[in-house]
Amino acid sequence: MLDLINFYLIPGLVVGAIYTLGAIGISLIFSILRVAHLAHGDLMAIGAYFALSWVHLLGGPAYLALPAAMALTALVAIGVDRTCYRPLRRRRTVMVIIASFGVALMLRAALMLIWGPDTQVYQSGIQRPMVVAGLRLQEKHLFILGAAIVLVVLLHLFLTRTITGKAMRAVSDDPDLARVCGVRTERVILAMWITAGSLCAAAGVFLGVDTQLSPLMGFNMLLPMFAAAILGGIGKPYGAIVGGMVIGLAEELSTYPLFGEPLIEPTYKSAIAFTIMVLMLLWRPTGLFRGKVL
Amino acid sequence: MSLRARRREAGDGSGVLEARQLFGGYGGDDILKGVSLKAAPDRITVIVGPNGAGKSTAMKALFGFVALRAGEIHFDGVRIDGLPPEDLPARGLGYVPQERNVFPSLSIEENLEMGGILRPKARGAALERVYGFFPVLRERRTTPAGALSGGQRQMLAVGRALMLEPRLLMLDEPTAGLAPKVIDEMLDLIRAIHKTGVGILMVEQNARQALEMATHGFVLVNGADRYSGAAASLLGDEEVLQAFLGG
Predict the structure, then answer these.
(1) d(Cα B119, Cα B13) in Å, to the nearest integer?
(2) CB nearest A184 (choices: B86, B103, B164)
(3) Residue B193 maps to which CATH number?
(4) Contact B105/A173, CB-based, under 8 Å?
């Protein structure tokens, strides 16, 4: 039982939290621009590497780099939007989707140029877990889960208590009616990129803290993050939280040796997200929380 | 600078909306074929006419949602054709579209807050004013707008547009789909809103009922204003009665 918690449930929650933070951004972007943002994974990797530079320059744990990495990634997201997406705003959305694929390749190439193609870590060496009543608690896992909860609560307060957050939900409901109210759509889009960009940077840093950094780390997250967004109902940021957690837990628990052997070979773990996504699209394309159809 | 001051600076303060010879549509053939309209704060102006005459399109065009091929729109002494819709509320023009006129996932109060988004400081007072007109909205302030009945939804849509205290309020079929009793209630409320000094420009399906409460009217036929004038004279015009108001 403790094994189940220590080696499957806790890692599942951690991975789920990372997926969640990425999927929220994907859902937000879709809800406002009606676009599947294919560069989201690579944007996430950029965020992780910003934190790496902070650690290299200033030392200290990667946690301290989180605010700066989030801010810088938000700036990158805004810059990408201004140069690559905004000129296409009035065109068909499929053009922006293709553009985001191009942006994904460019971000990845830039990342390799700046930080190199090799795998890196924030901190080398092994950290011993604390053992409390048989529970193996790793500092990094506590940090990731705690910070993810704080970020999700902040997002909730932003969307429900601030006028900018409400305007974001209004534009997602009906962009034309928002304009009738005098809402400047471009300002809402700016706030959206700040939100989505900083959350996905946090996801990137958490992934780096949990495992390691590599130029493909973001791209590899793209499928599970989209699966999470679709499972929750794309365009529904709150659905993304459930979607991310379900995908994360399903992936980890699927390898639990319930009958002596892992239920599914760990090598096939990444197929779980894909399977859930396909089943969801077939069975209920609006997702659990009745989002838009991708 | 307050919104009102900015409004005064930009316009002549008359609050008159005037469209001259509008031509345009949604990219294909013109739907508007020479529409001219006028509305003012001291008037209730109704646009009536058969289905497909371009009434809704004319409203959308006035609010900047239709690309015009020709024609001019002036509001408050300022030329507004070519301005994006989001520039108009601050100038004192309010608009309630016919369909999709509330944010379904936002609560009643959040919908009203969106209506008042340009005036953050006056939002509290504006909310009280709107709740004064529509007390039922206050009772259900936390209900998502998508869960409202047709009549309440329409009230919310009108309330939302009142949040910025417009000089002129454009209403596209505010009684569409409502029960007869609710229609009377809605029209009474519109009259009450007008009494506070807000001009009304309204598209209506119930032509006779609308002209009876209006001061001025336009009969739109095939994308152009066929008849116009004082509401009473339109109601007394045999030809208009015969052709468009069902005798």
Answers:
(1) 19
(2) B86
(3) 3.40.50.300
(4) yes
